[in-house]
Amino acid sequence: MPPLRIPPRQAATVALFAGLTAVGAYVRIPLPAVPLTLQTAAVLLSGILLGPRMGALSQAVYVVTGLIGLPVFAQGGGPGYVLNPTFGYLCGFAGGSAAGGLVAGRWRHAGSLRLLTAMLCGLAVIYLFGGLYLYWNLTVLQAKEVGFMQVAKIGWLLPLPADLLKIFLLLPLIRILRERIPEHYL
C-alpha cells in the first residue's frame, strides 16, 4: 500500500482539529461517569469541514496523541486510558467525524437540515461506541451490577440535551465559516 500523502494545508487542518478536540476536553462539566465536554463539537465540526477522511484522520491523531501519553483527554492520557469507562467515546470520534462528513457532503452547499442530520448521525456513532464500551467496562472490567438501561441513562440520556444544544449552536457557526473561509482553503 502506498504511503498516505497529505498536502501541507490539509495536514495543518488535521492537526488543528486534533488540537481543538484536545482543548475541548478541558472545557468540561463533571457528570456521573461521562463528563460533558466540548469535544463532540470539535469532532462533528471536523467531519463537516474537513470531510469524512480528513475529519476521521484528525480524530485518530487526537486519540493516538493521548494514548502515547500526552494529557489531551478529559482525564489525562497514556495507554492505561483504554481502561477508562469513557474510552469508548474516544473510539467513536473518528467514526462520528467520518459519518458526519459523509452525510454532510459538500458543506458549503448543504442546507441546515442536511447539516443537522449529519451532526446527529455523527453523534449517534459516538454514542454507540461510547455507550457500548461504558456498559462493557462497568459490567465486565469493573464487575458492577448495572443494567443496560442504567448505563444508557448515564451514557446517553444525561449528556444528550447538552450535545443537542452544541449541535444547534454549530449550525450558525458553520454559516459564518462559509462566509469567512475562502472556498479553496478547506
What does this protein structure show overall?
This protein is mostly helical. It has a single domain (8-180), classed as Arp2/3 complex 21 kDa subunit ARPC3. It is 68% helix and 2% strand. The chain has 6 helices and 2 strands. The chain has helices at 8-25, 39-67, 87-104, 112-141, 148-157, 160-180; strands at residues 28-29, 36-37. The chain has a two-stranded antiparallel sheet. Strand 1 (28-29) and strand 2 (36-37) form a beta hairpin. Helix 2 crosses helix 3 (87-104). The longest helix has 30 residues, at 112-141. The protein is globular.
* CATH-assigned fold name: Arp2/3 complex 21 kDa subunit ARPC3
| Number of domains as seen in the coordinates | 1
Helix percent band: 55-70%
| CATH architecture designation | Orthogonal Bundle
**Major beta sheet, specifics?**
2 strands, antiparallel
Query: How many beta-strand runs?
Result: 2
Structural class: mainly alpha
> Whole-number radius of gyration?
16 Å
Shape: globular
Q: What is the terminal-to-terminal distance?
A: 26 Å
Strand order of the largest sheet: 1-2
Number of H- or I-type helical stretches: 6
What order do the SSEs take from the amino end to the carboxyl end, as H and E? HEEHHHHH
Low-confidence stretches: none
